[in-house]
Write a structure and sequence with these properties.
The chain has about 270 residues and is mainly β.
Length: about 270
């Protein structure tokens, strides 16, 4: 359950309309309107932005009101970069149906918020390791996958923007933005394959209750406008309405159900 959830955490869709030319006697045919791919960019964080280093965010995960397991995210400084470490482990009925025990590491350039390297290790029915490296000098994202059961490998290179975020660091990138009422912006997300452009739209400020306590939060809707996550679902993230902008709660409405991530506690 976690594997598709984490990989689809930045998933939703937008319908693209195409216009067909009209026919008119004795007139030059009207050219079709070309579809313009949506664009996104990563904006460097403000000078006073602080990554939540040394804090581990622990989430309870629910699927159809059942306990589905736990997930964690933690930032630490690692040399000149920020390191985001995440884990996911299923529990209960979900662990019997689709057991997953995985971890994820991402490296982020702190002055730009560009993701430079991602490593994933997945245990369960699918045992594999994935590495995604950014090569901005060539405008490429380099994807390498190894099947830990068969030893088979796969290498793929795709065009990518010089600066993009990844599927988990993107949550914190959005938290670094102003999040003004009714504001929205597009950001590029790379996870192997064609990059996805995600629109982040601020919907409301509201009070929410999670196991970690009561919070005044900013609710943000994430919609993929292009790429492999387009049409896979919708994601909402509630950020604490303070300078920390902690992801308090996440809701993923996917094709196979709704998954909730609720903050249990913050460990230091």
């Amino acid at each position: 359950m976690f594997r598709p959830t984490i990989r689809l955490t930045l998933a939703a869709f937008i319908t693209v309309w195409a216009c067909s030319p009209l026919e008119a006697p004795a007139q030059t045919p009207i050219e079709p309107i070309a579809e313009v791919a949506p664009q996104g960019r990563i904006v460097p964080p403000p000078a006073n932005y602080q990554f939540p280093n040394g804090q581990k965010f622990v989430y309870a995960v629910e699927w159809h009101m059942f306990n589905a397991g736990t997930a964690t995210m933690r930032f630490d400084r690692d040399g000149d970069e920020e390191k985001l470490s995440a884990t996911a482990a299923t529990a209960g009925t979900v662990n019997f149906i689709y057991p997953v025990h995985s971890w994820f590491d991402a490296r982020v350039e702190p002055k730009t918020f560009c993701s430079t390297n991602v490593f994933k290790h997945e245990e369960g029915k699918r045992k594999r390791e994935i590495q995604i490296r950014a090569d901005p000098s060539r405008g490429k994202s380099i994807f390498d996958e190894k099947n830990l059961k068969t030893g088979e490998t796969r290498h793929q290179e795709d065009d990518a923007p010089a600066c993009a975020t990844d599927i988990l660091s993107g949550f914190f990138y959005i938290g670094s933005r102003p999040l003004l009422p009714a504001g929205n912006e597009n950001l590029p997300v790379v996870d192997g394959g064609k990059p996805t452009v995600v629109r982040a739209r601020v919907e409301a400020r509201e009070e929410i209750k999670v196991p970690a306590g009561d919070f005044l939060a900013v609710r943000v809707l994430l919609d993929p406008l292009s790429g492999k996550f387009e049409g896979k679902g919708q994601i909402w993230v509630w950020y604490s309405d303070d300078a920390a902008r902690i992801p308090i709660q996440m809701k993923a409405r996917l094709q196979w159900g709704t998954v909730m991530f609720r903050l249990l506690r913050i460990e230091k």
